Amino acid sequence: MSKDNASSESATNPAAKLWGGRFSEATDAFVERFTASVTFDQRMALEDIQGSLAHAQMLSEVGVLTADEFQQIADGLKGIAAEIEAGEFPWSVQLEDVHMNIEARLTDRIGATGKKLHTGRSRNDQVATDIRLWLRGRIDRIAAELTRLQSGLVALAEREADTIMPGFTHLQSAQPVTFGHHLLAWNEMLSRDYGRLMDCRKRVNRSPLGAAALAGTSYPINRARTAELLGFDAPTENSLDSVSDRDFAIEFCAFAALLLTHLSRASEELVLWTSSQFDFIDLPDRFCTGSSIMPQKKNPDVPELVRGKTGRVNGHLVALLTLMKSQPLAYNKDNQEDKEPLFDAADTALDCLRAFADMVPALKAKKDNMLAAAAKGFSTATDLADYLVRKGVAFRDAHEIVGQSVSFAIEQQKDLAELSLAQLQQFSDQIGEDVFEVLTLEGSVAARDHIGGTAPNQVRAACARAKELLAER
């Protein structure tokens, strides 16, 4: 049946619908458009065919289909897959969704045998299977891109293990760290994201096929076999839950929201660091754009867009939570609204990861600017307090002494390291010549020589551990 014929017949003959036997009048034209999902769920077409092939093979193995019928169905479905991949498939809104479009096309191609494919299943378990297959594939692509980003990030951190920069709290200069150490903080966020993604994949990888509409089927199906054929770990346990569960989609969107939140935090820092006020790093031109009116501008559009896209992914999570919050068991038409948020969340996460994975290894640190910034803001004040504690001064007394020293240095418009020994000693006679060793930025960074610390040798060790973990994936 051609697309035009399908449109014309379904508008005048309710029986032309694959479910139309019970109806006496055609679907209202607006309702037909309003309820159709084929414009967006057709992107699951190859997964739908994959699921149908497994279902048909199982039906032939249990004797519901003959070997010849299975072969006809398999050949027909493979031909349809070729049409879809070539962009030649005649999609029809009148056929509502991806499933009915493919089933109708199969019957066009192979005749009455095509009508047997749907034996023992429903669109309810069919769509639940398709979504899981589609999402599993996207999870694997996202995991690969996340690993690529982390690999580039760790390699950059190792190169910048000695590069000193200011560490901030409240966006105020706090203590000196290294650029490598800072980058490894991003990597820790992404490592947790990867763990959440893999945990989500375990719950995605269950087969609802065979749950049928809601209660299972009376045919002698083998759900373990279809699960095996489709690469699922096992069938789902309860038919009601199988067709109505969208927890896995919500869980994925929660992962995506956290991932984008982490990328957004990194983006915010990149935007700050590329500004003339910080001038800590340089982004290659290929990741930036210019201004239509200000010729001097070089705008960090990639991190800005990633930061902006976080809002839409967060919105998708809320949309799916809201979608599911009031649904009675089992399947409801509401669930048609699960796909567009899920699809866009996955697409956005993948695109943002790709942008970051391409961009991060190309970052150039402006080391002199970072070092100069770290020298400002009395970032070694804590080191002076620690020095006094090691001399026997109680920490609270040391804290007060250093506070007074900083106040004096501000009046003198100098950093602590620029004060003379005599000037420092007016606040404590415990201060000796060796104090200047702890007031240097290099000394401050090197003193944090423990796991998780900023000492360059600890940063390199952390990079080595991170590389080992990445290699195990």
TrEMBL record:
Q: Kindly tell me the pathway this chain contributes to.
A: Amino-acid biosynthesis; L-arginine biosynthesis; L-arginine from L-ornithine and carbamoyl phosphate: step 3/3
The keyword Cytoplasm is assigned to this record: yes
Q: Which reaction does it catalyse?
A: 2-(N(omega)-L-arginino)succinate = fumarate + L-arginine
A GO BP annotation: L-arginine biosynthetic process via ornithine
A GO cellular component annotated for this chain's UniProt record is: cytosol
Q: Does the keyword Endoplasmic reticulum apply?
A: no
List its EC numbers.
4.3.2.1
Domain Argininosuccinate lyase C-terminal spans what residues? 378-446
Can you provide one Gene Ontology molecular function annotated for this UniProt record? Answer: argininosuccinate lyase activity
Fumarate lyase N-terminal domain span: 21-315
Q: What is its main location?
A: cytoplasm
Q: Report which residue ranges the record marks as coiled coil.
A: none
Q: Which UniProt keywords apply?
A: Amino-acid biosynthesis, Arginine biosynthesis, Cytoplasm, Lyase
Where is the protein localized? Cytoplasm
Which family does the record assign?
Belongs to the lyase 1 family. Argininosuccinate lyase subfamily.
Report the protein name in the record: Argininosuccinate lyase
Q: Which organism is it from?
A: Microbulbifer donghaiensis
